[in-house]
Write a structure and sequence with these properties.
The structure holds 2 protein chains of 2 kinds.
Chain A lengths: L5 H21 L7 E4 L7 E8 L8 E7 L4 E6 L5 E7 L16 E12 L5 E9 L7 E3 L2 E5 L3 E4 L18 E3 L10
Antiparallel strand pairs in A: 1-2, 2-7, 3-6, 3-9, 4-7, 5-6, 8-11, 9-10
Chain B lengths: L11 H20 L11 E5 L4 E3 L5 E6 L4 E2 L5 E4 L2 E5 L1 E5 L2 E5 L7 E10 L5 E10 L16 H29 L6 H27 L9 H4 L5 H20 L5 H16 L1 H4 L10 H31 L4 H33 L4 H5 L1 H33 L4 H28 L20 E7 L2 E8 L4 E11 L12 E6 L4 E7 L1 E2 L5 E8 L3 E12 L2 E11 L1
Parallel strand pairs in B: 2-10
Antiparallel strand pairs in B: 1-3, 3-8, 4-9, 5-6, 5-9, 7-8, 9-10, 11-12, 12-13, 13-17, 14-15, 14-18, 16-17, 18-19
Helix pairs in contact in B: 2-3, 2-5, 2-6, 2-8, 2-12, 3-5, 5-6, 8-9, 8-12, 9-11, 11-12
The chains are: A mainly beta, B alpha+beta.
Chain lengths: 186, 553
């Protein structure tokens, strides 16, 4: 088959590339606090990335508090050198009997900024999270309260039964737990 | 190097030039991407201000946002007391959106509903209230709203007539005369009338239910926005079933014809119990069945009479002996059918009417009495037919005068039955309980009260007076154990009217003396089914949202 003239081929390729660029550019970047869970299998451990790129209605962020739901066996907050980090534990709860230590469960991880992060700048927190074994299929919600110089943004909305999560204005970051892996990894 | 490309590109240099051009174009396009996505835009101000009372109508409404936004097509609407006036022209000017108001809107309260898309693709909508020439922002729903029930009743009656006539005509040919040649044309005419009537009922029923005027039948949303899907389904079934019955008349074997016509007829008549009073107390197989039988009897009688009249005109004097047989046969059939219709009708009346007094007290009852009285006449005529006229004709079959007399009597019966079916059209739209079926203005608004559960407790919601205008919203938050829950901040309230796409309108509540109880003034500008969202910050990390739906008359 005779090849198309060079001009036509280039035009088609160029149009395709431009289209791809357009599409990637047009996908709305999220203004929410996001969660990227590197592992979702029940019983597994992996890194959970919480990220944000906006303050509260333009105001600079001073603190980010992440609530840890039930279903998380343990959490190790990552160090982020622009922030100090604090773990809040529930002393009254009975410790998990899984051999990982008798530590009280962590209910909150609070990052406090050393310098307020201006609106429009990106930052992320990496937490090493260990998921419980028996929660396959469950959706875990990690409500995040972002405090700013002025006001706060509470990313704590959880969709009701039948409600579409995409419609919430301040959705709590979430992830759905998948089936456990063959070699239950740590 | 020999160039093999025919025509367009001749040299290597030109090829490189094209490539360069393309790269530049791609970069340019990439550069045109929206900049770093920003957070949702927010409304920073409006002109006129929300709730303003103005002396003169402004030429335009200005909505100021925190950043430039994109317009939504037909996303800007103006409402007054009576409902939607129309969409507004919109244009952007930097971070502002300018809406052009119509000239001379007249005094009164207005609502501007707007919708924009912020740079990150998130839609934002809101509502702006303002008044012209009136003090105070309270709005009252207009008391005179359209009531098109009489028109709908007429259309319903005509739709019934078409339906019954079509079914009856086809059955007449198949059951009574038994001959192959079918009165297709009148049956087709009746069927078309039936289908058109049922299709017209789709918007008319919706408009009637919403209290909108007849002129709105030309608006698209009367046809699909407020439609009760049932009217669409009924129209479809009527069209399909009648078409099926009609096609069956072309079948070769008599059995096939009979089966097809019967199936199509029953399919058509099944729509009768689908709508109306049979559904008042949920589905009852007995009631629906009797309703269907009532319809079938009516169809056989009504359509049969029409068929008989036509038959007599064509065959009356030509084949008198056959004609006498046909007439006698029909007369017997009519007698049975009348008895069935009467019995089923009495049963239905008993089911629908609360008491015998209702016969006289309600419009429904009075229409029913009228229907019965009118029916007595064709009944009398039919009896006279059976016992006097037909024997006369049988004795002197060759006298055309007698045939003419018979035919006139039959036509008289047909006309009377038309009146009966017309009355039925009105009957089905009246409530047997004596109250109007459609919500009408003039009903006193009742305060709304409801207790809703949420994850963590219960919420007692009260809206007084529950009418359009200024209302007091009271919210009582209690924990699972029933004790009051004191929130750090009062609950946030947003109101929206999905059927008009209005909202969300934000309102605020304040603490009251009673712990756990929060109250505030909310403006409800229009009648309709409003959704009130109440958001409560229960703790630092917990938010509960409760939605209640309030019908504002």
């Amino acid at each position: 088959m005779k090849r198309l003239p060079f001009a036509c081929r280039s035009a088609v390729l160029g149009a395709g590339a431009a289209a791809l660029l357009l599409v990637s550019g047009l996908a709305p970047a999220s203004a929410h606090v996001n969660l990227n869970a590197e592992t979702t299998a029940a019983g597994s451990s992996g890194l959970f990335r919480f990220s944000f790129s906006h303050g509260c209605d333009g105001s600079a962020t001073t603190e980010v508090a992440i609530a840890i739901p039930e279903g998380v066996r343990s959490v190790s907050p990552g160090m982020n050198y622009g922030w100090t980090v604090e773990k809040v534990t529930d002393e009254s709860a009975t410790p998990a009997a899984d051999g990982h230590g008798a530590a009280a469960p962590v209910t909150e991880v609070i990052y406090t900024a050393k310098e307020p992060v201006e609106d429009g700048f990106y930052d992320e927190f990496v937490l090493r999270v260990s998921l419980a074994d028996d929660i396959e299929g469950e959706t875990l919600y990690f409500p995040v309260v972002q405090t700013c110089e002025e006001g706060e943004a509470a990313w704590i909305e959880i969709p009701a039964e039948g409600e579409d999560g995409d419609e919430l204005e301040y959705p709590a970051p979430s992830m759905t737990v998948t089936a456990p892996e063959e070699n239950g990894g740590h | 190097m020999r160039d093999h490309t025919p025509g367009y590109v001749r040299s290597g240099a030109t090829q490189r030039a094209w490539l360069l051009l393309l790269v530049v174009a791609m970069l340019a396009l990439a550069g045109m991407q929206p900049g770093e996505a920003s957070a949702h835009a927010s409304l920073t101000g409006t002109d006129p201000a929300d709730g303003a009372v103005l002396d003169a109508a402004p030429e335009r409404v200005t909505l100021s946002f925190s950043e430039p936004v994109d317009l939504v097509e037909e996303g800007y609407r103006l409402f007054d007391d009576e409902g939607l006036i129309g969409t507004l022209e919109a244009e952007t000017a930097g971070p502002d959106v300018l809406l052009t108001l119509p000239d001379d809107p007249g005094d009164g309260s207005y609502v501007v509903a707007w919708r924009v898309i912020s740079a990150d693709g998130h839609p934002i909508s809101g509502v702006l209230l303002f008044s012209l020439g009136e003090a105070g922002g309270a709005r009252v729903a207009v008391p005179d709203e359209a009531n098109i029930t009489p028109v709908v009743s007429v259309v319903q009656g005509i739709a019934y007539m078409g339906l019954l006539a079509a079914v009856g005509l086809l059955l007449f040919r198949v059951l009574v005369t038994g001959d192959v040649r079918v009165d297709r044309i009148p049956a087709l005419v009746a069927a078309v009338i039936a289908v058109i009537g049922h299709v017209l009922l789709i918007p008319l029923a919706a408009l009637r239910g919403a209290g909108r005027p007849l002129g709105d039948v030309f608006q698209a949303d009367a046809w699909n926005g407020g439609t009760d899907d049932l009217t669409v389904i009924v129209a479809l079934i009527v069209a399909v079933a009648l078409a099926g019955a009609f096609i069956a008349t072309y079948a070769r074997s008599g059995t096939q014809r009979l089966a097809g016509v019967l199936t199509g007829s029953l399919g058509t008549l099944v729509t009768l119990p689908m709508v109306g009073h049979t559904r008042t107390d949920g589905f009852s197989a007995m009631l629906s069945g009797i309703d269907l039988v009532h319809g079938l009897a009516g169809a056989v009688w009504f359509g049969g009479l029409i068929g008989l009249a036509r038959y007599l005109r064509r065959e009356g004097s030509r084949d008198p002996l056959m004609a006498v047989r046909v007439v006698s046969r029909f007369s017997t059939l009519a007698g049975i059918v009348f008895a069935i219709a009467a019995a089923s009708g009495v049963y239905l009346a008993f089911q629908y009417l609360d008491s015998l007094d209702a016969l006289v007290d309600t419009t429904y009852g009075r229409l029913l009495i009228a229907k019965i009285l009118v029916l007595l006449v064709p009944f009398g005529l039919a009896a006279w037919n059976r016992f006097s006229l037909i024997p006369t004709v049988a004795r002197e079959p060759d006298t055309s005068a007698t045939w003419h007399r018979l035919r006139r009597v039959v036509i008289a019966e047909v006309l009377l039955l038309i009146a009966v079916v017309g009355l039925t059209g009105f009957l089905v739209l009246q409530s047997p309980q004596g109250e109007p079926v459609a919500a009408e203005s003039g009903i006193a608004a009742t305060p709304y009260e409801e207790t809703v559960e949420f994850n963590g407790g219960t919420l007692d919601v009260r809206l007084t007076p529950g009418a359009a205008g200024t209302n007091e919203l009271t919210v009582d938050v209690r924990g699972e154990d029933g004790s009051p829950v004191v929130l750090e901040n009062p609950p946030g309230v947003t109101l929206s009217l999905p059927e008009q796409g209005l909202g969300p309108i934000s309102e605020s509540l304040e603490e009251t003396e009673t712990p756990g109880v929060y109250a505030g003034e909310v403006q409800i500008p229009l009648r309709g089914e409003w959704e009130i969202l109440i958001g409560m910050r229960l703790s630092r990390f917990e938010q509960a949202t409760v939605t209640v739906t309030v019908d504002i008359p």
